[in-house]
Amino acid sequence: QKEVEQDPGPLSVPEGAIVSLNCTYSNSAFQYFMWYRQYSRKGPELLMYTYSSGNKEDGRFTAQVDKSSKYISLFIRDSQPSDSATYLCAMRSSGGATNKLIFGTGTLLAVQP
Amino acid sequence: DVKVTQSSRYLVKRTGEKVFLECVQDMDHENMFWYRQDPGLGLRLIYFSYDVKMKEKGDIPEGYSVSREKKERFSLILESASTNQTSMYLCASKTQTNEQFFGPGTRLTVL
Q1: Are A34 and A49 within 8 A, CB to CB?
Q2: Fewer CB atoms < 10 Å away: N or C end of chain A?
């Protein structure tokens, strides 16, 4: 079983829809949670960063962490065609410099105009 | 804004050639990373460095080496390129608050 599971999609939604992207994980030591957006043939761009549990909002994006269920979500409100990209979740535990960031395999999102 | 740059966006090399991929960050980060990204396999960590001249193997170090002579620069070396090293190579650096920022990537093709 992978440490981080993410549905690869593709997920296709109409413009203006609310998008929900999710990851589950197995390691209860994970404390730092990130969402990256990656456009085709580009490097991942850090979108949201959350420490421990709770919600974080930034414009149309909301990140949620539920540590009791080992489940994280990214919500995109009023989705736009420019949101079409692959979304990667990533997480790591606290501790030393050698702790690695563990990535999901990414969900491909297409927002149709 | 954090800036991570990579020396080339696209690179084509022949089997057996020695290949250097360069990465530079401008935020004085101690931690730097090299990943490769392949369809269906996601991001896989090759090597990372947590200080100058310090390096640690990641999950797939075979066929690669790294060099970190200066804090801002982290180089990935393919001693003898092979076709199975055709991939997207991504460099990243990490803040002390554990935010990790990526460069634009180098798409390497080995013929």
Answers
A1: yes
A2: N
Nearest to B100 among A42, A101, A104 (CB): A101
Count the Cβ atoms, other than its own, within 10 Å of residue A87: 26
Give the nearest partner residue to A46 out of B40, B99, B104, using CB atoms. B99
A33-37, B41-45, B88-92, range with the lowest pLDDT: B41-45
Instruction: Dump pLDDT digits (tens) for B7-35.
Output: 999 999 999 999 999 999 998 899 999 99
User: What's phi and psi for A8, nearest 5 deg?
Assistant: -75, -15
Cis-peptide, bond into residue A113, ω within 30° of zero: no
Mean pLDDT across chain A: 92
Please state the rounded mean pLDDT for residues B86-98: 91
Inter-chain Cβ pairs, chain A and chain B, closer than 8 A: 47
Q: What is the spatial distance between Cα B56 and Cα B70, in angstroms, rounded to a whole number?
A: 16
Whether A96 shows a pLDDT value over 60: the answer reads: yes
Confidence of residue B42 (pLDDT cuts 50, 70, 90): confident
Q: Which is it for the CA torsion A61, A66, A67, A72, positive or negative?
A: negative
- In the stretch 40-99 of chain B, residues with CB closer than 8 A to chain A read 40-43, 45, 48, 50, 56, 58, 88, 90, 94, 98-99
- Provide the residue count of chain B: 111
